[in-house]
Amino acid sequence: MLEEVIFAGFGGQGVLSMGQVLAYAGMIENREVCWMPSYGPEMRGGTANCIVTVSSEEISSPIIGRFDTVVALNQPSLDKFEDAVKPGGTLIYDSTNIIDPPKRTDIDVVPIPASETAVQLKNTKIMNMIVLGAFLAKRKAVKIETVLEALRKVLPERHHHLIPLNEQALQRGGELAMSAVPVS
Amino acid sequence: MGELRLMKGNEALAEAAIRAGMDAYFGYPITPQSEVLEYLTREGYNRTKCTILQAESEIASINMVYGAAGAGARVMTSSSSPGISLMQEGLSYIAGAELPCLVVNINRGGPGLGTIQPSQGDYFQSVKGGGHGDYRLIVLAPATVQEMADFVEEGWDLADKYRNPVMMLSDGALGQMMEKVELREQRDRTARKAPEWATTGKPVERDRNFITSLFIKPEEMEQVNLHLQEKYRTIEANEIRVQEMDTEDADFIIVAYGLSARIGHKVMEIMRAEGVKVGLIRPITLWPYPYATIAKAAEHVKGFLSLELNAGQMVEDVRLAVNGRCPVGHYGRMGGIIPSPEEVVEVLKDMYSKIQ
Questions:
Q1: Are B15 and B146 members of one domain?
Q2: N or C end of chain A: smaller count of CB under 10 Å?
Q3: Given this model, what pLDDT does residue B231 score?
Q4: A39–B contact, CB cutoff 8 A
């Protein structure tokens, strides 16, 4: 199995951490994993992205130009990476603040009202976990239980009370992904 | 099996240094390798009582390394390109005085103050000698986070074996990216004894130890140089490390090190899936360089591509090895831009069609 995914959005949306959680979960499931951040001055308030590869084989390049899945959390990321989805691949995006939806018809387009749902769950920081839940439902790169195990290991003890909320967000994201209808 | 962790290259390097029994680290912060100093400051002294010191500059760092190495310590410094440039005088002194140490360069884009993004623009500086005089550094080029960790202890062992400074030449991407790392067990730092040549204080029963790179009489200086050259020939004979991937049946070979080798590997996978027999040669030691491996492959392939994040530096060594037997091309991006494998595939196809 091989999953090559890019998570892209604004700095502060939790783009880098959702990628790390996926990589960590992949490691727990005995996969080869690689997490490659874009870094530099643009991280502070500008766009941020990370490429995550989860594979049953040795991983060649940490940097790739074509992805099985693109996860875009804002309009600039959607514009930049829509064309980078491999034919037949998946494009998941936060539809809350999108004016110009994706146009491709040769891929699985999955709009998720993630920011809106995060407000309903009364914690806007949970938005990235809603999207990660959508990703896991669509691509099955790792199990949700493993992601929760990864969170228990990655999060400091004082944040462990947030794990049930994360679980709720992951599951809600999964439900939204399975009922998502592309905007035409 | 050792402990498995998901770590950034810079963190893996720092953790491996603690575990390998490092006695001292001297450094000065610079992006993209500041995590090394940060990690060591947090963990180093608390775990093994080793010395972790932020020096006032890179020039101070390398001269502290010189002093600690002379006293027989297992010592390291790390920096990124502009900082490594500042260390060149010290490196030449350390090589001249024949002291073992590990210097890590997390290469960023240059020249000048440049950019904080990854580059391989320091190849010439690392392997041809950025400082003055006829000296060589043993240069190790990791391509994975695992190797960022493994090459720390291996680097020190080589440094000790030959009394020679070792450079680990990595880059900003390998320093910042996270992969799975299997960590080695903690070495007992206090179990390692200082070498007999070290300036640890003169006991009654032996002459004083003396470490210098100053030999004012030319006859003496020539002898020192002849001895160094003999040592370098021994290193060339014994320590070349290289990885070959699918070279036996290859029509075309990519030569690349570090991050570029990872990209080259993906290019190879894409091309092989399309039926083109591409192989990869990855020099792991950049000095001594695997000339013989490339020369042997040159007998049966139609061409080589040297893939580097620079304007074409290692390609000179590939050409020396190939010695005119087949075409050698170069592809690289500069200034912190990393080419995607798909971009390199197009370059390779174009070059390949011209050779056919």
A1: yes
A2: C
A3: 98
A4: yes
